[in-house]
Amino acid sequence: MRRLLLALLFAIGCGGVAAQDLRPALLLTASQSRDSQDLSGQWTYSKDLYRTGLTDINGWVAKSRMQRYRDINVAAEESRGGAGFYEFDMDRGPQMSIPGAWNAADAELRYYDGLIWFQRKFNAKPVNGGRAFLRFEAVNYRAYVYLNGKEVGRHEGGFTPFVLDVTDALRAGDNRLTVGVDSTHDAQSIPTFITDWDLYGGITRPVRLVYAPATFIDDATLTLRTDGHIAGEVRLQGPKAARQQVTVAIGSLAPATATTDEAGRAAIDIKAPAALERWSPESPKLYDVRFSAAGDTVRDRIGFRTIAVKGGEILLNGKPVFLRGISLHEEEFGPNPARNMTEQAARALLHEVKHGLHGNYVRLSHYPHSETTLRLADEMGLLVWSEIPVYWSVDWENPAVLRKALAMQAETIYRDRNRASVVLWSVGNETPVSEARTRFHSAMADNVRSLDPTRLISAALLVERKDGVTAIHDPLANKLDVLAVNTYAGWYGDDKLESLPDLKWQLPADRPLIFSEFGADALAGYRNDGARKFTEEYQAEYYRKTLAMAGKIPTLRGMSPWVLKDFRSPRREHPVFQNGWNRKGLLSETGVRKEAFEVLAEYYRNRAASQ
Ligand code: GCU
Question: 316: which of 130, 335, 431, 579 lies 20 to 30 Å off by Cα?
């Protein structure tokens, strides 16, 4: 095991060859610009707690009378009489609105954790010599996908997209799509079954049927490098992928051209035109970019900016920047969220960050948020910290788990690397230091570095206090561009609020630091009760004191307090103050601003004015 892990780490650490193997077979980058059919709407479903419908790795063979993915009309079969019978009927099953988590769809499913089969019947046009794909933006946690009774693919991971080729399985006319969704997490999943957020099982983001020509652009990226060059790549797939002329047009700027090699790849590397406007939170300029080759074209809205570290500074477009941020979960406002992040829901959250808190930055925690949110961050001008849920602890010694983490990172980076807003890739959150853990995270950092050398790497580290001095004692820090710590002095532990401003920190003088988390619970409306914990007054004072402490740290270059909005967590069951909600939000679950909201907004207003 140790030898295998070392071999794997060696392979990954050396020039990213292994990283490339992690490229998903199909990406369909910029698929939102393609001819497609959105399969959102009412889907029928069938619970399968004992996984009877799944023939799985433990050798359980699903009985045909329980195979929900079969392409049969059960009612018609039954009307024919005979000995045969079925113990499911997806056509007459209960319905659920997709996308959205089942936990919010039906009180009976509030705490359901297991397998549920979903069916969507749809009408499709003929493919006519082209290709057809199903693109899932996210299914939590494992997905088993069948089209017209034929298995077309599986995926593990609740927050990243996957694309399945259904050219052969698709019928012109009626189709039956069946998706088995298993929300179960275990010791080898990422995250494991221990988190501080709710389950949200199901098809939580849109599913589209996407059409493309026989030879198509599978991947197309562009980014501005600190050397003043715009670099990127176009990858074709299909019979005519080799030796094709590629044209890349950035708005009305002079187009760039290149030619694909034998493998259908073309590298783009041009000097950035003098007229190119840089993207920044203050002026989030996006260009309409058209990638064309072999008769196929995809479009994407891309901003161009550089991000780098110099000594203790984070440089955006070459200038020092302070990240005025907040952390948030992917959970819409409301008393019964379904993790259905529509554009409207995402805009409501990000609007509070940008215009309520005067922020320029968000930590999208603890997993890749929806593409809708990322595209809005581009449009609204918010810098983004992105992470995958290597959270608290995973099976560090298990090579299969490492490969899962690296694959999840790759899926995230390939999905979001055209997003100007994304500036930081994080490789972990609050994971206790151990040799195996640090090896695991180091492999992740190497993986990120080879997949995307244009962005910064960080991780939300734990701090230690010895003799009254708080410091970072973590070998992983050497692998990171930006240090980040979660600090909860004044909430967890027994520090008095008044002592916070004088807390001593010992930090590297030449490394930029972010407070990736700090926060305190407060129940909206609970006030005038002696400023005790859970009151709005306590939370507000906690912020004042923590910000005063922050003001004394010379290398602090940003913060993302925990958290924008109260969010659901099965770990928070105080019957008066929590009731299944983590109450560290500056906003209640329905968007009510707590007293501390204004404390942070004031602080950011002043910082913005002095920037
Ligand atoms: C941790 C963790 C969060 C959690 C928060 C809290 O730092 O990263 O996921 O919700 O603390 O305790 O509220």
Answer: 431
For every residue of 464-481, DSSP letters joined together read: EEETTEEE---GGGGG-S
What is the rounded CA–CA span in Å between residue 469 and residue 471?
6
Q: What tens digit of pLDDT does each residue of 41-70 get?
A: 999 999 999 998 887 656 666 778 888 999
Q: Give me the pLDDT at residue 20, please.
A: 58
175 lines ligand 1 (CB under 6 A): no
Mean pLDDT of 309-328: 98
Residues whose CB is less than 8 angstroms from the CB of residue 167 and which lie 6 or more positions away in sequence, other chains included = 127, 130, 131, 132, 133
pLDDT reading at 99 higher than 60: yes
- Round to the nearest angstrom and report the end-to-end CA distance of the chain: 51
Contact in structure between 120 and 43 (CB atoms under 8 Å) = yes
DSSP string of 427-445, one letter each residue: EEES----HHHHHHHHHHH
517 lines ligand 1 (CB under 6 A): yes
Bigger pLDDT: 335 vs 14: 335
**Ligand 1 neighbourhood includes 196 CB (under 6 angstroms):** yes
- What does the pLDDT look like over 263-293, one tens digit per residue? 999 999 999 999 999 999 999 999 999 999 9
Q: Which atom of ligand 1 sits closest to the CA of residue 460?
A: 8
One-letter amino acid at 502 equals D
Looking at per-residue pLDDT, the higher value among 7 and 516 belongs to 516
CB of residue 429 inside a 6 A radius of ligand 1: yes
Q: 426 in ligand 1 pocket by Cβ < 6 Å?
A: no
Amino acid identity, position 327: S
State phi, psi for 523 to the nearest 5 degrees: -85, 120
For a mutational test of ligand 1's pocket, the pick from 192, 194, 196, 559, i.e. the residue with the most ligand atoms closer than 8 A to its C-beta, is 196
Cβ of 486 less than 6 Å from ligand 1: yes
Spacing, Cα 196 to ligand 1 middle (Å): 6
How is residue 135 annotated by DSSP?
E
Q: Where does 12-136 show beta strands of DSSP type E?
A: 36-38, 41-47, 95-98, 115-124, 131-136
What pLDDT, on the 0 to 100 scale, is given for residue 56?
Answer: 63
Residue nearest to atom 12 of ligand 1 (CA): 196
Ligand 1 neighbour 279 (Cβ under 6 A): no
